[in-house]
Amino acid sequence: MKQYRYKLTSASGRYNQRSDSQDRLIMEERQPSCEEQVEASLESTLEDLRKLWEAYMEGEEEVEDLGSIYDYGLCFDYVAMGTFTDQDEPYFRYQLSYGGPSEEFRIYTGADFEPYRIEYWFLDWFDGASRTLYGEDLELLSEIFTNLFVESMAAENAVTEARDDFQKS
Question: Does residue 157 share a domain with residue 117?
Fold first, then answer.
């Protein structure tokens, strides 16, 4: 005998009937892990940033379908040491999206704001994967960080703000 579960599927109060086999099929369908998605996401993001940076360096304000380099990211901040329990060192976060999934670059610098490591993170609920940038990719993000965030004093201001927030707590 088949067992059925009823699931509320609309605000109108309608219920749909599902069998055990349908439940198993639904449970077997899964979203790709962050590890399975990180490479493609990184390549797409770097492609966008290259186009935006090239336009910026040539004095163009916007790139069709991408907008401006100034509008590309959502947030730039400093994640002070101890913000997360598993955090080994402080970093600057250039957050590009959030929610599910989210994307960010973590920029590790010395006191002189010179990047010594930049990581790309692809994060989704209770899952995450990262890649460390090398070569041309590292150069691109270092250049963007220096020109957009260090020279504008945004990096220094982010550190000051994080320190002020820490002292208040």
Answer: yes
Q: By C-alpha distance, which of 84, 133, 131, 92 is closest to 109?
A: 92
pTM: 0.80
The residue segments making up the domain with residue 134 are 34-168
Mean pLDDT for the stretch of residues 49-59: 96
Residue 101 DSSP code = S
Terminal-to-terminal C-alpha distance of the chain: 60
Residue 66 in this model has a pLDDT that exceeds 50: yes
DSSP 63: B
Q: Which residues contact 39 (CB under 8 A, 6 or more apart)?
A: 131
When divided into structural domains, the chain yields a total of 2
Strand blocks (E) in the chain: 4-8, 15-19, 75-79, 91-97, 102-109, 115-124, 127-132
**4 and 52 in a common domain:** no
Dist. CA 76–CA 105, nearest whole Å = 10
Query: pLDDT digits over 87-103, tens only?
Result: 889 999 999 998 879 99
> 78 and 161 share a domain?
yes
